[in-house]
Design a protein that fits this description.
single chain, alpha+beta, Uridine Diphospho-n-acetylenolpyruvylglucosamine Reductase, domain 2, Uridine Diphospho-n-acetylenolpyruvylglucosamine Reductase, domain 3, Uridine Diphospho-n-acetylenolpyruvylglucosamine Reductase, domain 1, 5-stranded antiparallel beta sheet, 7 helices, 18 strands, binds flavin-adenine dinucleotide
Length: 291
């Protein structure tokens, strides 16, 4: 790896959808599997934490920064191919591109994921989903690489998918690519369905402000948004972080939010909702570093 690739004390704000947070002690945009292994090895040797960043649409990094290595997989990890009804994509491919390409090829199964602003890797890691579609529903297999450089192929069952969960949250391997079994559909009908859900997003979500999508996971009892609204917290703010007046399960950066403001707001929400209902909300957003 050329040392020019490894940046020190690198601000990540522009790579995080919330536009907040501090610097990574080390940051590297990765071009190849070998580079990935090289940087991972450095982190292990120096006993530093290591984090793979996708599009940063589900992550908040502490204002104090991250005393470790953060890597982002470059455009060389963005590729998509379709053969018959099987779609294959590499990890840095935007989910929106995958959804739109599937529609263009008259393929159904991922078209409702078009509005999720992350990468394939982030979506597999989180088992992202929307409007009744979850990425896990169509996964045939996922390829990943471990610390020893072994490429591992897992079929759908071996990925242990469940609601917003996959095995990659435990094993910390780097997701490289995935293939999906889609079903034949009609381009026009799929496009119409996609446009309908995209409009629903625009109508119900505060997309005009920096945010990271749903803050809390669904609970068996009720939607987090409904619980937060009932708790009277819609519009409540700490510093520049506000519970969106449009959708209570979104926190927005009204301009000058810090990562700590966002974290503190989630803590107040958890405490207030618990006091009023006995329900414990669980954060979906990943908070990285010290809070
Ligand atoms: C406006 C908006 C709307 C959203 N709507 C939805 C929605 O409807 N449904 C939904 O599920 N989510 C939604 N999200 C959240 C987010 O987009 C998803 O969770 C997305 O899958 C995250 O992808 P990412 O590339 O941004 O990952 P990041 O946020 O960068 O990372 C998320 C996690 O994935 C891990 N990761 C990323 N790439 C890899 C890799 N190659 N190998 C291993 N681990 C990896 C990271 O380490 C991190 O732990 C929304 C976000 C926003 C801002």
């Amino acid at each position: 790896m050329s040392s020019a690739n490894l940046k020190e004390n690198y601000s990540l704000r522009h790579l995080i959808s919330f536009r907040v947070g501090g610097e990574a002690r080390f940051f590297c945009e990765i071009e190849t599997n070998e580079q990935f292994l090289e940087v991972k090895k450095k982190a292990i040797q120096q006993n530093k934490p290591f984090f793979i960043l996708g599009r940063g649409t589900n992550v908040v990094i502490s204002d104090k920064g991250f005393d470790g290595y953060i890597v982002k997989l470059s455009r060389s990890f963005s590729e998509l191919s379709i053969e018959g009804s099987i779609l294959k994509a590499k990890t840095a491919t935007p989910l929106s591109r995958i959804a739109r390409s599937s529609i263009q090829n008259n393929l159904s199964g991922m078209h409702l994921l078009a509005g999720i602003p992350g990468t394939l890797g982030g979506a597999i890691y989180m088992n992202a989903g929307a409007y009744g579609q979850e990425i896990s529903q169509t996964v045939i297999e996922v390829k990943s690489i471990n610390d020893q450089g072994q490429i591992i192929t897992r079929d759908n069952a071996a990925c242990s998918f469940s609601y917003r969960h996959s095995i990659f949250q435990e094993n910390k391997e780097c997701i490289l690519e995935a293939s999906f079994q889609l079903t034949l559909g009609s381009k026009d009908a799929l496009e119409k369905e996609m446009n309908t859900v995209m409009q629903k997003r625009r109508d119900s979500q505060p997309l005009e402000y920096p945010n990271a999508g749903s803050v809390f996971k669904r609970t068996p009892q009720d939607f987090p948004g409904a619980l937060i609204e009932k708790a009277g917290l819609k519009g409540f703010s700490i510093g520049g972080a506000m519970v969106s007046p449009k959708h209570a399960n979104f926190i927005i950066n009204t301009g000058n939010a810090t990562a700590q403001n966002i974290y503190d707001l989630t803590s107040v929400i958890i405490e207030t909702v618990f006091k009023q209902t006995g329900i414990t909300l669980e954060r979906e957003i990943i908070f990285l570093g010290d809070f």
